[in-house]
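Hi Y.,

Following your request, here is the sequence exactly as I used it, all 98 residues.
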Amino acid sequence: MNKMAEENKNIGSDFDDFLQEESILEDVEIIALKRVISYQIELVMKENHIPKSVMAKKMCTSRSSLDRLLDPENVSVTLQTLGKAAKVLGRKLTVSLA
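Below is the corresponding structure, written out as tokens. Let me know if you'd prefer a different format.
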């Protein structure tokens, strides 16, 4: 490989390839998915004028637990918690493997 090719080894590859090479693709995808879900929940709460205290009460959980659910960086949320949030918001949680 010539010097120019060594310096530009990632030119022409896509970002997923880079993340895979760095062994962080799965982690990045999970964080991105959690951010989307958190955003969607907050958006529906705002659209329906549901304050966090009311949402937590309807979910039969604490306000701090709801804050963890809405924290886009916190990926340790259970499907049960996501399901409760979806139900309170009149939505259905769907999960699939791709």
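The two ends are 36 Å apart (CA to CA).

Thanks again,
Q.
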